Amino acid sequence: MSDASSMRRPVEIQEFKAVIKDLPEGQLAKIRSELENSMRHLDRSNLRLKKYIAKIEGKREDTPDGVDQEELDKVDANDLQLFQDSFRENEIVLRNHYERLEALDLEESYRQRGARSAPSAASGSSQSHTSRAPAFDSDNTGGDTNAPNSVYL
């Protein structure tokens, strides 16, 4: 038997679009919720990272919620590259999440209009999907942290 925990692997956006066509609405809502939650955490993390980077570079910025001056005083200048890399990686993941949310929006609009499936031109395939997709899990824990485009099937 196959389930989400046994089929954890990163997927590209085209595969994501193909998979969501076969998922029930409840599963789409769960995926949307997980993506939005992840995006909130990434946004919050990037606010902190931006403040840390500004502190190291000697720039003045207002302290975002959750970052106090004592915490900023502990920021080590040797971590600048780490903070910058982390910020950039978070931005990549955020863009990928936005792309997935757009795919979910498009799929939901096709379903509301009564279309059988989204146009296949974007996926480059005219084949119809007759089989059900495996359970889908977009939780990025336990995955490859070096793969910023990680949403798991």
Protein topology:
Layout: H1 13-20, H2 25-57, H3 69-73, H4 80-113
Report what the structure shows.
The structure is a single chain. With 153 residues, the chain is mainly α. It has a domain at 12-112. The protein starts with 12 loop residues before the first helix and ends in a 40-residue tail after the last helix. It is elongated and about 55 Å long. The chain has helices spanning 13-20, 25-57, 69-73, 80-113. α1 (13-20) runs parallel beside α4. It has four helices and no strands.
Q: Mind describing the biggest β-sheet?
A: none
Counting copies of identical and different chains, the oligomeric state is: single chain
H/E element sequence: HHHH
Radius of gyration: 19 Å
DSSP helical segment count = 4
